[in-house]
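User: two proteins, same treatment. go.

Assistant:
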Amino acid sequence: MNINLQEKFAEQYHKNPEAIYFTPGRVNLIGEHIDYNGGLVMPCAISLGTWVAIAPNNDGQFRLKSLNFDIETAVASNIVNEKDGTIWANYPIGVINEFIKDGKEISGLDFLFYGNIPIGSGLSSSASIEIATAFALNTYYNLGYDKLALVKIAKRVENDFIGLNSGIMDQFAVTFGEKDKAIVLDCETLKYKMVDVNLGNYVLAIINTNKPRELADSKYNERVAECQTALKLLNQEITLNYLCELNAEKFALHSHLISDETVLNRATHVIKENDRVHLAAKALNSQDLTTFGRLMYASHQSLKTLYEVSGKELDTVVDFCSGYQHVIGARMTGAGFGGCAIALLEKGYEEDFAKHLTDYYLDKIGYPAAIYISQIGGGPSSL
């Protein structure tokens, strides 16, 4: 963190915070648009994230301020079931609402948030804020929720309060992340295993296209509906709860049921992407980064042509990476429609990569991208 949050809290509230907490963002290494289709994803926590400082107050209100936004808000404990119209503040308000609905006696807290995750970049800034709030409340009040309970609370906020039909991956990844490990998560059963990510002579580069996404206003929910249509059609012959119960071979036996080309493309991506996660886990276990990199490129191509959630900006980044000899794999990460791409970049070429990618992107797009070199980090912590 490049600011002193304790000093900033004192400036804002004229008192010192009683506690400061951190929650990371995440990237998904592979397995995109799988979480709401009951399949496998492979996210990891990153070193970018959200910090929150808190202290009690005597007026019974939850006062919410952020160093990233000029707008601040305050809500009484009896009206936290309503959005206040301030986009960023609705995430902590939704979490507070869930705690109160669950019978937890919490009231009168001052919050100051600070995050270094680019907003709208696809690095789960919203999940990071949600879990930062939930972790802070749970720890400060010693409420006894386990990590999975916090994840489920945050998912309810996203689905019911914010109104986005997203899966559980983002909240799970930022909560369960471990340093230098990826999570292979079954989004249907929530069973998971940790996989060592030994990048050896490579680093994880995150490239922000600087094209923001508003997921609730995008075609994200449309993709969810298209997958549900595919599932319904397949269930004319077989019984499935999720698309990812099929592998590519079994899907080929029943794909004739889907006559709409767009719906067929969506289902094809989901099923083949789920298979790629299995292959990617094997590659990491074997420390075969070359194969892992090829799977990243294949994933991006599928997201571009079959699922249609990429775009000129993300494709420009991946096109550059595919022609840059010191990158062995790249793909969009997150839901798409803008946001970020990731790349496996050979150590020692960080500055050269950033310079040449910036020039290439600026020429093609007209404004610059932002490049970050991130560590694979751990989950929420008290500071």
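Protein 2:
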Amino acid sequence: MTKDIAVIGGGIAGTVTALALHRAGFTARIFEAHDRDDDERGAFVTVAVNGLRALRELDLDPAELLTAGFPTTRNELLGAAGQLLADVPLGGPTSDGLSTTTIRRADLYRALRDKARAENIPISYGKRLHTLTAAEAQFEDGSTATADLFVGADGLHSRTRKALDPEAPAPRYLGLLNAGGFTARPVASVPPPGVMRMAFGRRAFFGWAGAPDGSVWWFANPFRRTPAEPGEFTPAGWHAHLLELFAGDPFPAREIIAASGAALGPWNTWDVPRLPVWRSDHIVLVGDAAHAVSPSSGQGASMAIEDAVVLGRCLGSESDVAGALWSYEKIRRPRVEKVVAYGKRSGSTKAAGPLGARLRDAMMPLVMRMLYRKGNPQGWILDHSLS
């Protein structure tokens, strides 16, 4: 069995994968495209209870890793007129003490990398992949790395994916932009602790939650038919655009955005339709590189963590690489493709037209009552265990 594994990408998927491989007895090295501590590539991320449960499979303490975050265990969903459409569980507190947790991306990256360094897992920065063969990775800075196995954890626009299968389908744009931020001064409308409140606006979807320090963490999904182009918005122009989008909506999006020092983004939202090829004998994909899910699923980070645990377990328990990678794909593919489809459906409700919005707001309370009559319909996601 191979022992030397290069992990391409040092985000959540890559770092947890390296930790899982290390625990399984392999020599794992991380090659991260961005510079050291260049971590503010997003606002915040939610790690659901199934992702936290997967961390425990690696003897990682979620309370320690996500200490900078806070629980978000319920979702209050408001309609276009500000009326409550649904109040649904997001996960926890569970019987074993887990609660779905929201944390700044930078804080989670830092905690995971600190854990990797503590376990003497090498992390090389500024290593953006250029080309990859079965035996060697070449990076844009001219350096190279050899390994017995390469793990592609390089995200949505994965170059590892293209090296593995030049005909791989491109990411699919989902018709929404993404933005986020943090208030820098007090605002009046702060949800109760543990609640992520979301609302369907006329031209954009908005979500907000109160952090323990009194600030509000928020995100926005403006509807847009085509992706935003790089440099299309200046920071000031993007901030002003968001304020304009929420003009006239009966929830405090404008107040919250105005109280924020900056509006991060825009980022385009994508997913990856069914990917025909996940692996060869020397290359395998994890996380968004294999199965990018819509942010509307709330499962991107958790699916990546689950991948890492299963890959480490398969490589550590089987006698040859090809068999282990086959087992990994067999276990993970059905689950993640179901989550991708779920995220696509969830995101589509955000961009309904005027008639669709009226129908949605009229029908959703009834539909939710029916769905939750026999328990949580998201139980297949949140209650999943890798044990």
